[in-house]
């Protein structure tokens, strides 16, 4: 009986999270693991070594926090989510939608594709800060 009640509560929570526009990841968790980030990145279209790099960039940009908001003193609206998508340069997205890990991954893949399949739009790539996260990103690939 207790397991049925717990199952119903979890089902209600998942439904409420997805109905409000959040994915199950964003509605239930704090920071995502490299494996969870790699899953949304792969769903968005990243593949092979670029998938590993995408995860490392996300970890460098947000520490895996889908609700991270940065750069507010630099640009209006700042940068939001796992890949810190900048709202000034990407007004097609909203801050709220970019807190959804899959929406953010999709946006990151669109930006990467528009840059000629390059990570140069991300400062953590240009500075090399993402390299400190490559090992964790590679470990996150094991089960994807």
Overview features:
single chain; 144 residues; Lysozyme; three-stranded antiparallel β-sheet; 8 helices; globular; disordered N terminus
Brief digest:
53% of the residues lie in helices and 4% in strands. With 144 residues, the protein is mainly alpha-helical.
Detailed description of the structure:
The chain has 144 residues and is mostly helical. The chain has a single domain, classed as Lysozyme, CATH 1.10.530.10. It is 53% helix and 4% strand. It has helices at residues 2-19, 24-28, 34-44, 48-62, 95-98, 101-114, 123-126, 134-139; strands at 69-70, 79-80, 85-86. The protein has a 3-stranded antiparallel sheet. Strand 1 and strand 2 form a beta hairpin. The longest helix is centred in the N-terminal third of the chain and has 18 residues, at 2-19. The chain is globular and about 40 Å long.
> How would you describe the oligomerization state of the chains in this entry?
single chain
SS field, number of helical segments: 8
CATH class: Mainly Alpha
Which stretches of 5+ consecutive residues score pLDDT under 50? 2-28
Structural class: mainly alpha
Mean pLDDT across all amino acids = 84
Shape: globular
What portion of residues is helical?
40-55%
Q: What's the number of structural domains?
A: 1
* Tally of DSSP β-strands: 3
Beta-strand residue fraction: under 5%
Secondary-structure element sequence?
Answer: HHHHEEEHHHH
CATH topology name: Lysozyme
The largest sheet, given as strand count, sense and whether it forms a barrel, is:
3 strands, antiparallel
Radius of gyration: 16 Å
The strands making up the biggest β-sheet line up spatially as 1-2-3
Q: Whole-Å distance between the termini?
A: 35 Å
